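Standup notes
- HV: blocked on the assembly model, inputs below
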Amino acid sequence: MQKAPLSRETLLPLMAAHVLEHGLGRASLRPLAKAAGTSDRMLIYHFGNKEALIRELLEYIAGVYSTALEMALGDDRPTTRQQCFARIADQGRQPTMRRFMVLWWEIVAGAARGIPGYSEAAQEMITKQLAWLEAQMPEDDPDPAGGARYLLTMMEGTLMLGTVGHARTASEGLLASDLSRP
Amino acid sequence: MQKAPLSRETLLPLMAAHVLEHGLGRASLRPLAKAAGTSDRMLIYHFGNKEALIRELLEYIAGVYSTALEMALGDDRPTTRQQCFARIADQGRQPTMRRFMVLWWEIVAGAARGIPGYSEAAQEMITKQLAWLEAQMPEDDPDPAGGARYLLTMMEGTLMLGTVGHARTASEGLLASDLSRP
DNA sequence: AATACGATGTAGCAATCGCTACAAGAGGAA
DNA sequence: TTCCTCTTGTAGCGATTGCTACATCGTATT
């Protein structure tokens, strides 16, 4: 069988899949290389060192996340903010997005610690999510930009509470917000 | 100099300080032991293995967090939800709490991954924060329980956006919520 | 005094970490 | 051909990982 040239573009999606399943914290060169069908030797050869590799990998994952969001853009807009929030929540429950979420908190933790590459990826993912949300806002919304930011904040808080086992707290909080009053 | 008996109770605060500064991800036995003035040998002796150590350490940290919250309880209550939110935000800007925040996202990430001990600590910290918030709600609030959960959700979303460099997004979101309308 | 037991130091083990030195092959350029 | 550069495999380095075997103290009990 002939050997395809293994470049960064070939390796990144395979490593991204590995990281999505096993996390970033324990992503060391040899397992990553095995998942990508190469050796640690070649990863260093292609990316220079691990830090640069992780940086490129996070960048790539942020890109994948963006396109996943764009593909999830329905052509019918919700008519109220409540409906809009519900739609994001539904979308966040998709298994594809759930796998992103587990990785997401690791990225946030890395960004908080200042690990190089993490903050950039986190910012891009939030920026993309915000743009997606603005495009989903009701047409007659009096303040789509602010509303999208409001929904985003509530959404992220809800997601966090959900992942630490306080989903009920979040849903009860939602009931007490104006997002539950038409 | 005489040698104090080094028990778990003596070791935990020293290790907690180390973890608060250097993070959980790279908290290995030998640095932890050095920070606590012992050897890795003794940490295993006292706690059995690393997993149990981390579990107890997180439990201890959650306790410290709780008492820190209780000490931050002012005796005058805010009169509006907006004021209440502002007070939590101020408190979150304290340097003591900032150091907790960096660790917090690591705990959330661990909880999302299902690492033993993380979810329990995260749940307790949220529960305590929720109780603290309920005690801080305005006296005449029509729904203190729901309101506290609402504020908590917004707060956590705001904090997250802040740590990934989207503080402005969060503050603009706050302006578009009913927390900015009297 | 003899014994038992808890506490601790020393040394080390197998595994894994990121990374590198060296050589070998392949393919194009001269 | 002869060279040169790009790509890859093999082997290994020193450091660190969690953890353990063994010996040695001091103290308490018998």
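- HV (later): unblocked. Residues 5-6, 38-39, 41-42, 45 of chain B lie near DNA strand C (CB under 10 Å from a C1'). Chain B has a mean pLDDT of 93.
- Next: hand off to the docking folks.
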